[in-house]
Design goal:
This protein is an all-beta fold. It is built from no helices and 11 strands. A hairpin with a 4-residue loop joins strand 5 and strand 6 (about 55-60).
Length: about 120
């Protein structure tokens, strides 16, 4: 399984960006797929996930601003990021879990999101 992330960039505070993560080489039958982010000097943070059944999770810092969705026909998960803040600046990584115990983990390459003040 390969995950290909795209959509990062530079945006002013208050703006929007949309990230995509396309999966290939598998069935997209992931138990969970989503996004982590890591800012310089900070720990990795789980941002948002969506389960096979469509249940979503959001970190408190992004709730009501970010929306995660998946298109099973396109084997793609999206992260719509609105009302961006400078503290959202980070490298965003998509990941996916599958297997009876979610023992198989896959990672995409990071995509940089920079929010200027």
């Amino acid at each position: 399984v390969q995950l290909q992330a795209s959509g990062g960039g530079l945006v002013q505070a208050g703006g929007s960006l949309s990230l995509s993560c396309a999966a290939s080489g598998g069935t997209f039958g992931f138990n969970r797929i989503g996004w982590y982010r890591q800012a310089p000097g900070k720990e990795r943070e789980l941002v948002a996930t969506i389960s096979a059944g469509g249940s979503t999770y959001y970190a408190g810092s992004v709730k009501a601003r970010f929306t995660i969705s998946r298109d099973n026909a396109k084997n793609t998960v999206y992260l719509q990021m609105n009302s961006l803040k400078p503290e959202d600046t980070a490298v965003y990584y998509c990941f996916a879990e599958e297997g009876p115990l979610s023992e198989f983990n896959y990672w995409g390459q990071g995509t940089q999101v920079t929010v200027s003040s």
